[in-house]
C-alpha cells in the first residue's frame, strides 16, 4: 500500500525558513512528477512547485525565488525548502505524487495528509 507522509511544518517568524519533506512508502516502481500544493481555508488548492523524474522544476509566481523543490528518486522523497516566509504563506501544504507506478498502480495519484505552516508577523 502506497502512502505519502509529510513532515517539517510548524511555526516560524516572517523572514524565516522551513523545510518540508515528503516520503512515499510502499513498493514503488517510479513517480512521474512530485508536487507541493497548498490550501487555505475556504479557498481552492493551489500548486506551489513541481519536480519531474529528471529534476526539472516549476514554481508558482508567488513562491518563485523563495522556495526550492528537490527530490530523490531512489528514496521516493521530495523536499520543499521555504525561505523568506511571509504571513500569507500560512496554509496547509500537501505533497502529491502524480503518475505513480507500483505493482497495484498505473499512473495513479496519491496525496499526503497535509502539514500546517504558520508564519507570524
Q: Quick one: biggest sheet?
A: 7 strands, mixed
Let me know the average pLDDT: 97
Estimated radius of gyration: 14 Å
Give the uncertain stretches in residue-range form.
none
Order of helices and strands: EEEEEEEEEEE
Helical content stands at under 10%
Shape, per Cα inertia axes: elongated
**How many individual helices?**
0
Strand content: over 45%
What class, by secondary structure content?
Answer: mainly beta
Distance between the termini: 41 Å
Q: What is the count of β-strands?
A: 11
Describe the structure.
With 121 residues, the chain is mainly beta. The chain contains no helices and eleven strands. The chain has strands spanning 3-7, 10-13, 18-25, 30-39, 46-52, 57-59, 67-72, 77-82, 91-101, 108-111, 115-120. Strands 2, 4, 5, 6, 9, 10 and 11 form a seven-stranded mixed β-sheet that branches. It is elongated and about 45 Å long. 31% of the residues are buried. The model has no long low-confidence stretch (mean pLDDT 97).
Features:
121 residues, elongated, mainly beta, 4-stranded antiparallel β-sheet, 7-stranded mixed β-sheet
Provide a quick synopsis of the model.
The chain is mainly β and 121 residues long. The chain is 0% helix and 58% strand. It contains no helices and 11 strands.
Topology overview:
Layout: E1 3-7, E2 10-13, E3 18-25, E4 30-39, E5 46-52, E6 57-59, E7 67-72, E8 77-82, E9 91-101, E10 108-111, E11 115-120
Parallel strand pairs: 2-11
Antiparallel strand pairs: 1-3, 3-8, 4-5, 4-9, 5-6, 7-8, 9-10, 9-11
Amino acid at each position: 500500500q502506497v502512502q505519502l507522509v509529510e513532515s517539517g511544518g510548524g511555526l516560524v517568524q516572517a523572514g524565516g525558513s522551513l523545510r518540508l519533506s515528503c516520503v512515499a512508502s510502499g513498493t514503488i516502481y517510479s513517480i512521474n512528477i512530485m508536487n507541493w500544493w497548498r490550501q487555505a481555508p475556504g479557498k481552492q488548492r493551489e500548486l506551489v512547485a513541481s519536480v519531474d523524474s529528471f529534476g526539472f522544476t516549476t514554481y508558482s509566481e508567488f513562491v518563485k525565488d523563495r522556495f526550492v523543490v528537490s527530490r530523490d528518486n531512489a528514496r521516493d522523497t521530495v523536499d520543499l525548502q521555504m525561505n523568506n516566509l511571509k504571513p500569507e504563506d500560512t496554509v496547509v501544504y500537501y505533497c502529491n505524487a502524480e503518475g505513480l507506478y507500483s505493482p497495484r498502480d498505473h499512473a495513479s495519484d496519491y496525496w499526503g495528509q497535509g502539514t500546517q505552516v504558520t508564519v507570524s508577523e
